[in-house]
């Protein structure tokens, strides 16, 4: 019997077909599938022969070394990683070379930026005649990062981006400003009406169609989805995400912020200050509901409400009971909330981009009105927020997972109280009152998240021309 092929607990590997001459892999018999670091993953190619293209940074401490790889896509699969999180990953087939041996394996693509090894060799990639030695490092010899010395470094040029603004209101201030800001920075921005998108749900070649025509691949999608389209809009967004586009607010985060009961639970769980809030389903619980928030005066809010329309102040217990009973009679979903009187009919809108408050305004209600909504005659003025208010806003956007958010809070005796987190905050009021270029900051945020990838296709084409 010949000696077995020994793999150490770590090995140098190569993927000749992917153009990767060296990569350091951790051998992990505890993991089923192998995984490879990949960013900017993007499906392409014919529907009957789908492929994925991705960007690889093989050298952990030299991110400027960037290799663009392409491989046949064989599957998309739910994979649970060691931290317990489940992720839908692309699966490719590629030939790995370790020492003198070369064989085909299946590899899932995932962002391993924060991991020590850019590759994990799982047990399904280890053949019958191989053994793993837990005490040996690099049993099959070493390769060197020098193999990348002639590779081009990451291009510094900023290429124009193709951005989709997903909205049903292409003519409103926010949509127009976003397009302007994108164009001012040399990008192409297109308004896409959510309601006119159709989707072909095909695991390996996802696409979004618009009036029957297949949309191109966008570098980024900025969702401006109104409450009436939340579910469909989220589905469209998920589809865009599968095409590899960067989504400014993910479908999941929009879903959390739109589900008001859930949003309140998420905020409370994170220890964020908010008015005492109660909700109930059974009509027998009216008295309990009122007790839960400490009695009248209290605020009753219809969950489907926007622009302050379904927000009612009940000044006495009697009034509270009749409002609650009336909403019940209409089969409406609502919450009951402690009335923060000290707020004096004002709330503060913090506009966050990329986890930072970039602008804020105070909305002061009209006389005889406790609701500060601009649609209810409220007036927007510039405001300096406190450190505590800033921290609450940052935390609220973070726990909701929103890249762009409008966090509304009330100034109370016991510190800031968050009342809602908006995933498509309007840009007009905040730009006018703060004088800041908020739309521009949103586009800048997109630029920072979409990598400047040098496309190998173009280079290859140029080389071929030269040779011919
Ligand atoms: N618990 C409260 N105590 C005091 N005032 C409140 C309270 N809740 C809301 N308000 C006031 O009523 C306004 C409307 O409430 P809220 O923002 O919750 O409703 P909305 O209908 O969702 O409005 P939006 O259009 O911002 O989504 C707030 O901007 C605030 O001024
Ligand atoms: Mg609201
Ligand atoms: Mg509001």
UniProtKB/TrEMBL annotation:
Domain ATP-grasp: from-to ranges: 264-447
Similarity field: Belongs to the RimK family.
Comment on bound cofactor: Binds 2 magnesium or manganese ions per subunit.
Residues given in the record as Mg(2+) 1 binding sites: 408, 420
Cofactor(s) required for function per UniProt: Mg(2+); Mn(2+)
Keyword vocabulary terms for this entry: ATP-binding, Ligase, Magnesium, Manganese, Metal-binding, Nucleotide-binding, Protein biosynthesis, Ribonucleoprotein, Ribosomal protein
Entry-linked Gene3D superfamilies: 3.40.50.20, Acid Proteases, ATP-grasp fold, A domain, ATP-grasp fold, B domain
Entry's Gene Ontology molecular function annotations: ATP binding; metal ion binding; ribosomal S6-glutamic acid ligase activity
Record's keyword annotation contains Metal-binding: yes
Gene: rimK
Protein name: Probable alpha-L-glutamate ligase
Positions of Mg(2+) 2 binding: 420, 422
Gene Ontology CC terms, in alphabetical order: cytoplasm; ribosome
Coiled coil stretches, renumbered: none
One of the GO biological process terms: translation
EC identifiers of the protein: 6.3.2.-
Binding site for ATP: 301, 338-339, 347, 371-373
Residues annotated to bind Mn(2+) 1: 408, 420
NCBIfam families xrefs: PRK10446.1, rimK_fam
Residues annotated to bind Mn(2+) 2: 420, 422
């Amino acid at each position: 019997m010949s000696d077995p092929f020994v793999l150490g607990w770590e090995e140098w590997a190569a993927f000749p077909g992917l153009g990767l001459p060296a990569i350091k892999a951790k051998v992990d018999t505890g993991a089923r599938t192998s995984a490879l670091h990949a960013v900017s993953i993007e499906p392409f190619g014919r529907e009957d022969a789908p492929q994925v293209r991705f960007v690889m940074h093989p050298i952990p401490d030299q991110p400027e070394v960037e290799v663009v790889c392409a491989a046949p896509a064989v599957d998309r699969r739910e994979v649970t990683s060691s931290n317990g999180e489940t992720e839908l990953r692309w699966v490719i087939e590629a030939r790995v070379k370790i020492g003198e041996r070369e064989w085909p394996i299946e590899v899932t693509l995932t962002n391993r930026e924060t991991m020590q090894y850019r590759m994990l060799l799982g047990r399904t990639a280890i053949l019958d005649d191989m053994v793993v030695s837990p005490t040996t490092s690099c049993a099959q010899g070493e390769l060197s990062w020098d193999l990348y010395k002639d590779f081009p470094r990451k291009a510094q040029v900023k290429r124009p981006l193709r951005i989709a603004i997903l909205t049903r209101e292409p003519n409103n201030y926010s949509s127009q400003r976003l397009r302007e800001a994108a164009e001012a920075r040399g990008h192409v921005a297109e308004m896409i009406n959510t309601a006119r998108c159709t989707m072909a749900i095909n695991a390996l070649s996802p696409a979004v169609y618009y009036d029957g025509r297949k949309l191109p691949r966008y570098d980024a999608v900025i969702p401006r989805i109104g409450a009436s389209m939340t579910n469909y809009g989220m589905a469209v967004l998920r589809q865009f995400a599968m095409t590899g586009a960067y989504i400014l607010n993910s479908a999941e985060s929009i879903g959390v912020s739109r589900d008001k009961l859930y949003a309140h639970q998420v905020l409370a769980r994170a220890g964020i200050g908010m008015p005492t809030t109660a909700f109930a389903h059974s009509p027998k619980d009216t008295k309990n509901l009122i007790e839960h928030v400490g009695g009248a005066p209290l605020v009753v809010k219809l969950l489907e409400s926007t622009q302050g329309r379904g927000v009612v102040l009940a000044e006495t217990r009697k009034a509270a009971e009749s409002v609650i009973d009336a909403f019940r009679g209409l089969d409406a979903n609502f919450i009951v909330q402690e009335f923060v009187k000290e707020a004096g009919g004002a709330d503060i809108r913090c506009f966050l981009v990329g986890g930072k408050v970039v602008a804020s305004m105070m909305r002061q209600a009209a006389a005889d009105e406790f609701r500060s909504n601009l649609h209810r005659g409220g007036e927007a003025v510039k405001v300096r927020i406190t450190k505590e208010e800033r921290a609450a806003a940052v935390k609220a956007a973070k726990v909701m997972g929103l890249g762009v958010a409008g966090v509304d809070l009330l100034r109370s005796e016991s510190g800031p109280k968050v009342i809602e987190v908006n995933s498509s905050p309007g840009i007009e009021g905040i730009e006018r009152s703060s004088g800041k270029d908020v739309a521009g900051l949103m586009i800048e945020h997109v630029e920072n998240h979409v990598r400047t990838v040098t496309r190998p296709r173009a280079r290859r084409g140029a080389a071929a021309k030269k040779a011919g």
